[in-house]
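Sync notes, pocket subgroup
Present: LS, DG
LS reminded everyone that the earlier model was apo-only. Rerun requested with nicotinamide-adenine-dinucleotide included. Inputs:
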Amino acid sequence: MGLMDGKRGIIFGVANDKSIAWGVAQQLHAAGAELAFTYLNEALEKRVRPLAGSLGSTIILPCDVGSDDDIAAVFKELEQQWGTIDFVVHAVAFAKREELKNPFHQTSRDGFALALDVSAYSLVAMTHYALPLMPDGGSIVTMSYLGAVMAVPGYSVMGVAKAALEASVRYLSAELGVQKVRVNAVSAGPIKTLAASGVGNFNKKLRTMEERSPLRRTVTQEEVGKATLYLLSDLSSGVTGEVHYVDGGFNISAE
Ligand code: NAD
């Protein structure tokens, strides 16, 4: 018996086999879950389709999370094909490259709005459209980073977006607990992915983890996947509104 046998859900955020969302997908599949996937555009569709297919998934849909129509269409399709779902994985984020390169005080109004829209508001919109498909409850997990709670050099507007994302997790969980829908975040340590390549001094962040986390190493996609599996499964049935750190226990200050 797998932990997720008989459970169905959707994963937003696979871009390639380095994506955190892909690490999550592999863990969920191994635990017996049935998965649907979305992709941002045609270029990424070429990467996502074979990956999703390798896990036996047949529901693979386009979705720009900046569009309510796209999000609504995804959940409408899931309703038609599956009727109900048990979980949603939100692993998407975006900020313009220049916003992550320039000093934070130079962040443009547009760039600020775009980063918060794609990286934080999208969780609220997704939850809204997912709810009718979760009549008996469900679990929603998003991906955050330490930059939500402290000023991490080079993370800038994305840190503000992650703070909004973590606050959204608390407000959504407070409202939806009575419907047995749980909402949590995983705060992952730095992992080399497409999105991470836009973050300033990323290699230095990896080295800092190797030097100053109790485990003296960076974490893997697989480890983030396992923690997400826990939060999506009944093992975490009493957990909601939490930010669960998967970062090697990073807590040792610089000398
Ligand atoms: P990734 O580049 O593999 O994934 C980011 C995904 O966001 C991609 O699939 C991309 O297509 C998607 N995306 C961007 N804009 C979108 C839009 N408008 N509509 C739909 N999808 C859109 O990188 P990743 O590191 O796996 O990122 C996944 C999540 O994990 C992000 O929220 C990221 O902030 C978070 N995270 C990453 C790290 C890290 O070090 N890599 C650490 C902590 C948290």
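DG: The longest strand covers residues 181-188.
LS: Strands lie at 8-12, 34-39, 60-62, 87-90, 138-144, 181-188, 243-246.
Action: DG to write up.
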